[in-house]
Amino acid sequence: MKNFIDLRSDTVTLQPDFMKEAMFKAEVGDDVYGDDTTINELEKLAAEIVGKEAALFVPSGTFGNQLALFTHCKRGSEVILADSNHIVVHEVGASAIIAGVQLRTIETLNGVITKGDIEKRIRFEEEDIHFPSTSLICIENAHSSGNVLSLENMKEVYETAKKYNLPVHLDGARIFNAATYLNVDVKEIAKYCNSVMFCLSKGLCAPVGSILAGDAEFIKRARKKRKVLGGGLRQAGYLAAAGIVALKDMTKRLKDDHDNAKFLAEELDKIPDLTVDLNNVKINMVFFKFNKEINTKALTEYFKKNGIKINDAENGKLRFVTHYWITKENIYKIIKTMKDFLAKSI
Fold first, then answer.
1. Is the pLDDT of residue 22 over 80?
2. Where are the alpha helices (DSSP H) in 5-98?
3. Where does the Aromatic amino acid beta-eliminating lyase/threonine aldolase domain lie (predicted)?
4. How many CB atoms lie within 10 A of CB 207?
5. How far apart are the C-alpha atoms of 296 and 319, rounded to whole Å?
6. Cα 26 from Cα 165, distance rounded (Å)
7. Which residues are CB-neighbours of 319 under 8 A, at least 6 positions away?
8. Residue 188: strand, helix, or coil
9. What is the Cα–Cα distance from 261 to 283, expressed in whole angstroms?
10. pLDDT at residue 1 above 60?
């Protein structure tokens, strides 16, 4: 981290010294037996922060999302969600393997689904011998596109689900970024779902881990199924200590990352060969594409030689992500490196 400016994701963040100190001093026990006091503290704190009855520490965001599906859904049932959501695009088809469910997707703009979208797709097996039953509706906020769903949209989805007696799961990997953008308490987002997963290692500097939260009965069942998936950890309090610091301290500074993303987007947009998606610079992500043919593999190699790590393009777009270790001074170097590369590629 100290040798590179790393724009690949906000998952790359190494731990600041004060977080390492908390990890070093953590009191631990066996979490499967319920003896790890630091894990217990983290789970209690996490539940309180999002306004849920209980919470469970899990190894990753994908683990938390898939555990939610595994807990909510009957095998062979159907989950309604946007076609661009992380659960569909970047979780390796795990829903078919673990929960044994079918994903019924909705083509959307940046993850926004509506009452009409949902009602067209709700099915119940007793209506027709050919139908599976809808078991769950999933939404994502903040969305992987950098978009933030409005509270009004989340309320619409939640009330539609309640009308049909269906639960809503929120992939809230970056829920604190969404709350920062909307300028609301995170509870105002989480109240429009029955379960929520959020990451401690995306933008919050914890080394490992996510949280799944919901009502007490749901978390009791999820705890058992976490064990089925091999997620029953032992002296996990060292990781939980980092998670506590992440929730208490690192969530409060996310606006800095958002401001840096806006500055980066504005500076990139001044380069004639680039088109930046300025409408979706709502959190800490900047998406852009080139207006001419560019060898993006050569671009990533050039950036790396100049001390900057970036991912190659996906579907024609590149993504730069700001985080705790990206400063305004770093951004000046990023812009200069981009201009230098483009000048050499003429």
1. yes
2. 17-24, 37-50, 61-72, 86-89, 94-97
3. 6-289
4. 17
5. 12
6. 42
7. 285, 286, 287, 311
8. helix
9. 7
10. no
- Count Cβ neighbours within 10 Å for each residue of 117-153 and write b for 16 or more, e otherwise: bbeebbbeeeeeeeebbbbbbbbbbbbbbbbbbebeb
d(CA 115, CA 12): 37
Q: 51 is written with which tokens?
A: 């306004």
Give the mean pLDDT of the chain. 97
* pLDDT value, residue 346: 64
DSSP 247-314: HHTGGGGHHHHHHHHHHHHHHHHTSTTEEE-GGG-SSSEEEEEESS---HHHHHHHHHHTTEE-PPPB
Torsion (CA) 201, 198, 178, 14 in degrees, nearest 10? 0
| Mean local confidence (pLDDT), 118-122 | 97
Residue 305 in tokens: 């030689």
As a CATH number, domain 5-11+253-344 is: 3.90.1150.10
- To the question of domain 17-251 being in CATH 3.40.640.10, the answer is yes
What type of residue sits at position 164?
Y
Cα–Cα dist 170/148, whole Å:
13
Q: Retrieve residue 123's tokens.
A: 């099915």
The total of other beta-carbon atoms located within 10 Å of residue 247's CB is 23
Beta carbons within 8 Å of 249's beta carbon, 6+ residues apart: 18
Q: In this structure, are residues 281 and 271 in contact, taking their beta carbons and an 8 Å threshold?
A: no
CA angle at 290 for the pair 286 and 296, rounded to the nearest 5°: 90
Alpha-carbon distances of 43 from 207, 214, 252, 274, 336, rounded to whole Å: 17, 11, 19, 44, 44
| pLDDT of residue 291 exceeding 80 | yes
The answer to whether 30 and 235 have CB atoms below 8 angstroms apart is yes
**Cross-strand partners of 169:** 138, 195
pLDDT attached to residue 21: 98
Domain ranges of the chain: 5-11+253-344, 17-251
